[in-house]
Please model this.
Amino acid sequence: MLSTAAKSDDKPKFYGRRMGRRIRKAKTTLLDAFLPQLKIPAEMPINKETLFSTPVDKLYLEIGFGNGEHLAGQALKNPDIGFIGAEVFKNGVANLLSIITGIKEGENLPEHISILPERKDNIRVFDDDVRLLFAKIPDNSVDKIFVLFPDPWPKKRHANRRFINPDNLKEIARILKKGGILRVATDHKIYKRWTLEQLRNHNAFKWTATCGNDWKHAPADWVETKYQRKAIREGRRPVFLDFERV
Ligand SMILES: C[S@@+](CC[C@H](N)C(=O)[O-])C[C@H]1O[C@@H](n2cnc3c(N)ncnc32)[C@H](O)[C@@H]1O
Model:
């Protein structure tokens, strides 16, 4: 995943995978023909007033949305909220597009691709490293940020690749509104400890938990993710950590 130190060509070094298995026909078409409609425009200011075709009340950001289930689920449940999803992994971006258009492999592609009628046009996609997006997001403008099951990089020598780190927290603290929430979920003991160490004594954040029930169980507005299912299948118990921007 991410290093705060290693950089090349002015781009931060990304340690994860950008591509997985060969992307088949329908998803390739979605990436080529439909993604441009949802992509964050390079030249536009990033705020809830300019990004969406219809007005939204709040702006949420999901960092590393994986195959997009959580982002698509949240956007469906919250039609009045605008969502930005950032993901480097191309196959994941393609999967999100498949969920929100209902277009699956093996089916005939419609002449005109659009989001499913029951959905609002409330998702925008940044298909690259979110650290390249941060600078374009104004201070105090995002209501909620999700970092769900980030790559744990459990080895000590890889600790500087962990997404929850001082540099990224500085940006997250800057763009989150006062009272906004940073939600981190993890199934990894080392990452849980690491996250609490990074955030508990951080002067911009307050852990909202008052008892074990608040972090051992999924919050009321939760949508299941692929990595959450994998963790449970493999016998690990996820934790759900909400931090308020103070
Ligand atoms: C372990 S996966 C979890 C995916 C998903 N959140 C879930 O719970 O199923 C972590 C994801 O974060 C993405 N990621 C890591 N660093 C990122 C960054 N700086 N910008 C955008 N995506 C990132 C990776 O590509 C990967 O898909």
